[in-house]
Amino acid sequence: MWHAAWLPPEAFRALGSRRTVVHGDGALVDTVRSEVDRAVAASGSGGGPTYDLVLALDTAEPLPAEAAAVRAEAGELGPEGFALARREGVTVVLAGGPAGLLYGLFHVVRLGESAFGADRPIETHRPWAARRMVDHWDNVDVHPVMGQVERGYAGGSIFWADGAFRGDRDRIRAYGRLLAACGINAIAANNVNVHATEARLLTDRLGDVKAIADTLRPYGIRVHLSVTFAAPAVLGGLPTADPLDEGVRSWWAAATRRVYETIPDFGGYLVKADSEGQPGPFAYGRSHADGANLLADALAPYGGVVHWRAFVYNHRQDWRDRSTDRARAAYDHFAPLDGLFRDNAILQVKHGPMDFQPREPVSPVIAAMPATRLAVELQATQEYTGQQLHACYLAPMWSEVLAFEPVEGRFAELVAVSNVGDDPFWTGHPLAQANLYAFGRLAWDPDADPLSILDEWIDLTFPEPPEPLRQALHAIMDGSWRTYERYTSPLGVGFMVRPGSHYGPDVDGYEYTPWGTYHFADRDGVGVDRTRATGTGFTGQYPAPWSDVYESLDRCPDELLLFFHHVPYGHVLHSGSTVIQHIYDTHFAGAEQAAEMRARWAEAAGLVPADVYDRVRERLDEQVRSAQEWRDQVNAYFFRKSGVPDAEGRRIY
Amino acid sequence: MWHAAWLPPEAFRALGSRRTVVHGDGALVDTVRSEVDRAVAASGSGGGPTYDLVLALDTAEPLPAEAAAVRAEAGELGPEGFALARREGVTVVLAGGPAGLLYGLFHVVRLGESAFGADRPIETHRPWAARRMVDHWDNVDVHPVMGQVERGYAGGSIFWADGAFRGDRDRIRAYGRLLAACGINAIAANNVNVHATEARLLTDRLGDVKAIADTLRPYGIRVHLSVTFAAPAVLGGLPTADPLDEGVRSWWAAATRRVYETIPDFGGYLVKADSEGQPGPFAYGRSHADGANLLADALAPYGGVVHWRAFVYNHRQDWRDRSTDRARAAYDHFAPLDGLFRDNAILQVKHGPMDFQPREPVSPVIAAMPATRLAVELQATQEYTGQQLHACYLAPMWSEVLAFEPVEGRFAELVAVSNVGDDPFWTGHPLAQANLYAFGRLAWDPDADPLSILDEWIDLTFPEPPEPLRQALHAIMDGSWRTYERYTSPLGVGFMVRPGSHYGPDVDGYEYTPWGTYHFADRDGVGVDRTRATGTGFTGQYPAPWSDVYESLDRCPDELLLFFHHVPYGHVLHSGSTVIQHIYDTHFAGAEQAAEMRARWAEAAGLVPADVYDRVRERLDEQVRSAQEWRDQVNAYFFRKSGVPDAEGRRIY
């Protein structure tokens, strides 16, 4: 079996011990009823002469008086929204649609006993975005290099195994329940790198997709599919995949019609085109708007959408060529296309201009395309943030991105790359579950506080946690992203990881490669000059005043200094430290903090199940080892280059 | 089909146009007869009233008068030796045994018309060593990382494919013929890293080994097998593989008896023990002499030998630990065991103390074990010397090793790791055939001149080569090893290759790894201090005066300077150049020379078959590209570290 994650039976204790009535009809309402029944069965209670909890669709007839009163006061709820109130000993959840009722139910679970205490004034909850989606980079066939799940650190796929549908519907249903409980309502079921077998999910293997969609539907989750832009050629046998070719357009229309005949609530397509070897419209001299609109037009009759990734760059760059800057690529390719995309084409932009590093500036694309629907892509799978061997709670980073002023109001939805696999703990590292949970909550409300979300996750996952456990979890997780940043690549410069695996340090690992990911460290200094004055001009992609802030050596934030500037090792940061001393200090501190995290976890012994305790302890051992390796390699590298000794005389190898 | 390598029909023209008689009996003599028949058939001649060539075993009765006269004058020939003379228009080859007759025949082929010209005084040829062996690192199963052939750059294996015997006996026979023609008489048929399937070649899959042995036997080649030291446990189900355990000794005795019942002329075992994860005697607290003698005792009743590799070192070293020196490992492990090995145990020592780098000092083990039979292991497969994408004729390097004074007379035989695969050209790069040919000739006579061997190879492979072709081949191949050295890691320091693949530059690629292969470059200098005075003490493993020569910064040869010393970039070499300027100069020169090699090959257009021309041209294109990449990465790396500009102001990135 698998770990209950944030839905252990104990989390339903308050609900299960109440007398509850559900008003409404339909499949999702039945899911709500079954959740209530399960909770009652688990707590073995639910008695009492009157109802404690009324869960009602606002269209249900007749509505009980308590619910009707709420309806009279609540505003527009929308299909996924709900209102909650408690009056005279009755808690009422009134929903604008079946999905809203499900979300309302899980909100009651989150509230626990406090949903049944003192009276609560009416409050309404509506998701900030209509779609909250996770992308699975799951392969159907085991890829010879990337395996069953590309950049997956939680075992195999819950959908696919060794070339076929895995068929474990119980696991998929349990997954859907977890997703619904944090507000996620869409998944892409296969990797954006679409190989030969995966391409056929669109056609003769569509039945597998239907099976997943049927299993997830009771939790309000729609299934999307990653497709290859070359499908008309590789699947349809056409001589071209040119988006302006009539035969191609007909092929996509027919293929899409078949998909909707099979899966009426199919979500849409996800496409990685002209990116790292995937086919795309460039081959035909067409723009990415032409490419995206081709699929958007095929999907429009059915209400589907295409997510079109903006991750387009030259991955065969010559490291000798200092004028090419990978950070510029997405903006250079896409900003000129603003306004040219269909309404149901969503441009999916990674949150930073590079590739999910622990610290990047926010992608300038997001501020640059006001006439385009944008999704911001986050990465729950910890490709560059410790691969679920390191505890690294990412929500604080994501919140910083979403609160960046030029970004606010400029994106339509959030998408995350999934960190889930068939591992018993779902995410390898049990604490990495919090990243998936937090993503769902931020996708529902990007303004939510990441530490409040962490509290929610703790209360659900470890119901009624003893105070020492809560404190230990906060001590480990609150600052874990910044700790990870401290012991890895400094001051926003990024990478310095082992090529290929992306795990562990290799300071020069990408320095002379075609990947466009360099730090340019020499004996005098380090960093990438991306200024307009003397560098690649990337700073000019930001609106004022940010373009000037980043351009200015004085005003650029410390944590992004080496992303934007090449500076001498003696350059003094706003913090008062020199760059070289900052490197030493943060790396010694980061490794120490990793050791402290491990020490704090010892306090959780006996307060969590033994399997959880052991798994986390093992991973913290590896985190401590790895953090020391990062510390020693990075410090040795920069000492050998700079010759500057550590001001505190600590050991550098 | 496959390329004829150094045995094209044209190479047999002089032989085939003569009237030849063969005296003697047996399978190898039949092979000689069939070679003569094939040559005559190819040239369509062979007429004349008397014999031009007499090939005779010295035990044949009756011997013709010409041969009897040679026998009267020739000394002891031994089982593989032969005498050659030409008198009164008759060429005589008199052999001490069937294999000698075969070698004598191929010697006549090498001589061509000059075997049939003026009279030749009697000359005798005997191999310097009784065994001349190539080790195939061929896997039976395709290894998930290493593939069908570990470190193989010539396609698949000629013996194995996808988990089974390949069954292409014609190809194996053709291979045996090529080996015999350059004097090789033994092969190990599987990789020294013995995985699960390969282990069973010793037992239930022995039939496959027999098939190979049967196919190679007509060319005088005996088959050896790589075995796992853990065989009694993994194959025999015993609770231990302890070499002093009686059950283990009985198991090996019985297993070996079955091998010889199946293959009466089986050569013996090859073992990689306690090395890079392979099992060995250390697990039982036993010495490597105990381990080797276990197998030697099992093989002794049948005249078999065990080759026991000395490649034992800590491959999980901590890069922070400056006191551990991989170069010391083989000597530290094995020198104390001198005199403890059985007569039929052969300690197989890599020619350098590290691992087949383009430049290393000679292994001090070779001079340190006078009471042990040693084989010097060379690597024809170009793992670190361009992987058969670069032309790199290795015989000059091997000759330098073999001529190193403390080594002369201290080794009993030569072994090479094979560079052959199922590629149509056998070795990927057609010019890499010369490395296998030259190995065979050096194993027969370690004093042979590598450039004379190259001439032999050219004359056989491109019969009657036009002078421009001969000159182009010499221009490309003579100095190709030194050219490769110039554009790769400088002054003997080694590595600086991409981890894993070992192809292409990555200066820091191994610098912070557990492999023990470091250069310690910092902003002030570079190199490994292996002196007794201040370093790891490795110099002390050499006998005087070499220990003092290497210890001395003044006397250490330039080409090994950074192997033995850590020096500032401004250190002045014997050449008069500084270390940093030497790095720049050699890298610019090496890349230029690669471009010159390509230019010279253009002169071969129309003078060699088109497929040979095209294959070599493609590889030279890659060599030029790769040499420029090496040049630019190494120069950029050391410029960034040292800050010293190139004295000639050339472009450094």
Q: Assembly type of the shown chains? A: homodimer
CATH class of the largest domain in chain A: Alpha Beta
Number of helices of chain A: 21
Number of strands of chain A: 19
Keywords (chains A, B): Hydrolase
GO cellular component, one term (chains A, B): extracellular region
GO molecular function, one term (chains A, B): alpha-glucuronidase activity
Protein name (chains A, B): Xylan alpha-(1->2)-glucuronosidase
Explained architecture:
Chains A, B: Keywords: Hydrolase. Chains A, B: This is Xylan alpha-(1->2)-glucuronosidase. Chains A, B: Residues 427-650 form the Glycosyl hydrolase family 67 C-terminal domain. Chains A, B: GO terms for molecular function: alpha-glucuronidase activity; xylan alpha-1,2-glucuronosidase activity. Chains A, B: It holds the Pfam family Glyco_hydro_67M. 2 copies of one chain form a homodimer. The first copy, chain A, is of the alpha/beta class. Chain A folds into 3 domains: 9-125, Chitobiase/beta-hexosaminidase domain 2-like (Chitobiase, domain 2, 2-Layer Sandwich); 132-316 and 323-461, Glycosidases (TIM Barrel); 485-528 and 566-642, Alpha-glucuronidase, C-terminal domain (Alpha-d-glucuronidase, C-terminal Domain). In chain A, 36% of the residues lie in helices and 13% in strands. Chain A has 21 helices and 19 strands. Chain A has helices at 13-16, 27-43, 65-73, 98-111, 169-182, 196-199, 206-216, 231-234, 246-262, 288-299, 329-334, 365-368, 395-403, 433-444, 450-461, 467-477, 480-487, 546-551, 561-564, 579-602, 610-642, and strands at residues 20-23, 53-57, 82-87, 90-95, 120-125, 132-135, 138-143, 147-149, 160-161, 164-165, 186-188, 222-226, 268-271, 305-309, 345-350, 373-379, 413-417, 525-526, 567-568. In chain A, strands 6-11-12-13-14-15-16-17 form an 8-stranded parallel beta barrel. Chain A has a 5-stranded mixed beta sheet with strand order 1-2-4-3-5, sandwiched between helices. In chain A, strand 3 and strand 4 (90-95) form a beta hairpin. In chain A, helix 5 crosses helix 7 (206-216) and helix 20 (579-602) packs antiparallel against helix 21. The longest helix of chain A has 33 residues, at 610-642. The two termini of chain A are 46 Å apart. At the A-B interface, helix 21 of A face helix 21 of B.
